[in-house]
Amino acid sequence: MRVTGAIGAGLREMTDKPKTIKSVVFPLAVLGALVGIWTLVWAAGVFHVSALPSPLSVLRAFELEIRTGRLCNDLIISLFRVSCGFSLAVALGIPMGVWLGQKLTPRLALLPIVNFFRNLSSLAWIPFAILWFGVGDASTIFLIFLAAFFPVVLATMAAVSSIPTVYSRVAHDYGLSGVEKLIHVTLPAIMPQVITALRVTAGLSWLVVVAAEMVAGRDGLGFAVMDARNGLRIDLLLVEMITIGLIGVAIDSVLARLTNIPSVRWGYER
Amino acid sequence: MGIRKVGDTQIEPLDSNRRRPPVSLTAVDSQSSRPFQLTRVGRRFGTVEVLQDISVAIEPGEFVAVVGPSGCGKTTLLNLLSGYEQPSAGVVERRGQVCMVYQVDGLYPWMTVAENISLGVRHLASADERRLHIDDMIRLIELQGFENHYPHQLSGGMRQRVELARALAGNSDILLMDEPFSSLDYLTRLRMRQELAHLLHERPRTVVLVTHDIEEAAQLADRVIVLTGRPAQIRRELRIQTARPRALTHAEVVSATRIILTELGIEDGAGAIEGA
């Protein structure tokens, strides 16, 4: 027998307090240690000055980039592209996944091709993206869409086809119509798995935007990385890299909050 | 579910695209108001014959338990009764609205206790009336304070009580139960039997219970149907006269248990147990 909600929450609260402190203090300690090692390696002159910037020079570059507004500008551009490509992939991928999950014939027909595109790196599309859409927003959005769409379709399809049949029978017993069943049974039943898929594909999209902008961009964080490299500004390079990593973490932690919605908690507490 | 007129001679496929009609069954003379009349019903899957020549009539308000060796087709029989499956031979006549309680967790885990129970009262037009019915059911199963809990926050027994409440909240006439308590521990199962007897006292229904728990059948049912191994036929029908609810240790329950065990070949009739 499981503990009831009230008792369970109480237990969690009691054990959570020291855990929260640890989850802040320990990562900060690791970060401090990394910066320490970096400083030591730099001071010892292991690499040439042009191959490893000092932490202080990176901090200064950060300050400059923020003051000139360039970092913020690139960041907004990249986030805009990811939002567009990812939203488009989700908006089309979930309905298609639901459809394929429910209908055997289209699933048999389309699954191999979906699998093919799922395994074809969207970066391989870069030349075509540039030929078709030119350099800029459209081509990067197209590449992000390709990276996210197929995984979303496959994950949604798998989730739908694994819904226990008893849920359908209950829907039938209580006279739910087709639309009601979709809204009150099918979609809530796949939500936990879909949210997990969204977290994975959002991460994927963020990886792809950087790579796409490096080749097919005139702005954005990926282009800034390439620009810093071309100008031999390794301090700026690190500024962009740190920003890209931090934003990736931020995107995931925002999406992770979706798992706290009460009506999907069941999917994560087994 | 489709509207089933009194006097239907053929079973009607359940219509999945319509809400249950808000009208309940009108009382008619006992012969034609029988919830179930099965005439020489058989069911085969390919070459495997699961049920053979089953004829049985179930009276309104009766509690019938079906027991038999495992894998003999008890669940198939229940699926024929609910209309989920069609017979390969014979006729299943059904009058009234059917609600089913399943073997595995049939509660929707993304809905709270109150939301799950509200599925049972979807036919009521007014929100106030629905609210009233839901509160009523929650009080009956003594889960006040748990309305907004999700199934995964409840114990197995509590979940099964919610499932009963959902099935009994509506205006169905017939309750079909497929080994509803089989996943519960022994003591919880005993308590759930009392709970079911109590709920049926408040909300009378015709019940068909499929179970492998012979004690459960003997304690709860007015009539126990013992099936043979596959292809399942009716081996014996046993009426239990003592009024419900009865104690597990009541003499008639004990003797009925012994008779059923003997019919299933587990006891030799003299009281010695040959095997589990």
Class by helix and strand content of chain A?
mainly alpha
CATH homolog superfamily of the largest domain in chain A? MetI-like
Q: So what's the overall shape of chain B?
A: globular
The coarse overall form of chain A would be globular
CATH class call of the largest domain in chain A: Mainly Alpha
CATH hierarchy: architecture of the largest domain in chain A: Orthogonal Bundle
Biggest beta sheet attributes of chain B: 6 strands, mixed
Strand order of the largest sheet of chain B: 5-6-7-3-8-9
Number of spatially distinct domains of chain A: 2
Oligomeric state of the chains present here: heterodimer
Structural class, from secondary structure content of chain B? alpha/beta
Percentage of residues in helical conformation of chain B? 25-40%
Query: How far apart lie the N and C ends of chain B?
Result: 41 Å
- CATH topology label of the largest domain in chain A: MetI-like fold
Number of helices of chain A: 10
Strand percent estimate of chain A: under 5%
Largest interface: chains, residues each = A-B, 29 and 38 residues
Major pleated sheet of chain A: none
Radius of gyration of chain B, in Å, reads: 19 Å
Keyword list:
heterodimer, A: 270 residues, mainly alpha, MetI-like fold, 2 domains, 10 helices, globular, B: 276 residues, alpha/beta, six-stranded mixed beta sheet, 7 helices, 9 strands, 30% helix, 21% strand, disordered N terminus, disordered C terminus
Report on this model:
The complex is a heterodimer of chains A (270) and B (276). With 270 residues, chain A is an all-alpha fold. Chain A has helices at residues 5-44, 55-68, 70-102, 104-119, 126-133, 137-161, 165-173, 178-216, 221-230, 234-256. Chain A has two domains: 1-51; 53-268, MetI-like fold (Orthogonal Bundle). Chain A contains ten helices and no strands. In chain A, helix 2 crosses helix 10, helix 3 (70-102) packs antiparallel against helix 4 and helix 3 packs antiparallel against helix 8. Chain A is globular and about 75 Å long. With 276 residues, chain B is an alpha/beta fold. Chain B has a domain at 103-172. Chain B has seven helices and nine strands, in the order βββαββαααβαβαββα. Chain B has helices at residues 74-82, 113-120, 127-140, 156-169, 186-202, 214-220, 251-263, and strands at residues 36-45, 48-58, 63-67, 89-94, 98-101, 174-178, 206-210, 223-227, 234-239. The longest helix of chain B is centred in the C-terminal third of the chain and has 17 residues, at 186-202. The model of chain B is unreliable at 1-30 and 272-276 (pLDDT under 50). At the A-B interface, helix 7 and helix 8 of A face strand 5 and helix 4 of B.
